[in-house]
Amino acid sequence: MSTVAVPDLTTTQAPFIEEAHHDGRLFIHQPYDQYSERNHAAWRALYARMLPRWERYANPAFQKGIASLCLDPERVPRLEDVNRFLCPLTGFQAKPVSGYVPAFLFFDCLRNREFPTTITIRDSASLDYLPEPDIFHDIAGHVPMHTDPAFAETLVRFGECAHIAADLADSISDLDRRTAVMTSIVRAMARFFWFTVEFGLMGPPHGLRVYGSGLLSSYGEIRHCIESSAVQRHPLQLEWIVNQAFEIDHYQPLLFVADSFDHLYDSVRQLERWVKEGKLNNVAPGEPSVNSRDLESFMAASTQPRVRR
Length: 309
Ligand SMILES: [Fe+2]
Fold this sequence. Notes:
Helix content: 40-55%
Order of helices and strands: HHHHEHEHHHEEHHEHEHH
Bound molecules: fe (ii) ion
Strand content: 5-15%
């Protein structure tokens, strides 16, 4: 007997999201009533199996963040509830989006202490790997870190970097040259974001622990990244990271270890200086490729008046 699927908020199958795409709406609301029991069951299963791994492998700031947000292990969270706990701590808020946010817009949201947040959740049949982000990755993987003041400031600095890059674009009149420079800077920023916010490790005093959200939301990789001898782990080095390609569809063979969140913050300040000084104008080619939407978002920003901070 065949069953008719009930519309819900499952990743790649949600009519609400398709409608938003059709209408060109990127910033949306979270239609909480549309989560089905199977959506809540997926959250419950993901949360239950990650909890012991977070206790073992996650940075203490993340564990404190999980407790501060009072996430419900049983049900998909309401973003307004999350924000009620989050906002008083660092000013950050989860902001629901319908899908991919072009790079400049994404970084600009961070600068405004808004985190673009996916509202769909993966199908319970594919808990292990999902190429696109979902609400478990965004809310259980990213947002607990946003409760930490030093980490929150680091995200804001990423946003500032994007504005400095757009300023630099303004100063280059030749279009081909401007395109090449912006492609390089966006690639460098994407690499730095990837190897820190998404896949960062932190060293002593707590032992080697995970603070990157891609790892914090992956049941298999959170253990692999700490325990496996197949993973190269090196001290965080900006000059290496901005030139280091990465691929997204398998466990990471190379990770970088920050000393502390202050160290991470200082590294983003250095990234910012390097953007200003033109040191990222020609980083090593390779992944990630910079798509036209990302590039255009920076180019468009460079022609608009922006508030300096
Ligand atoms: Fe992410």
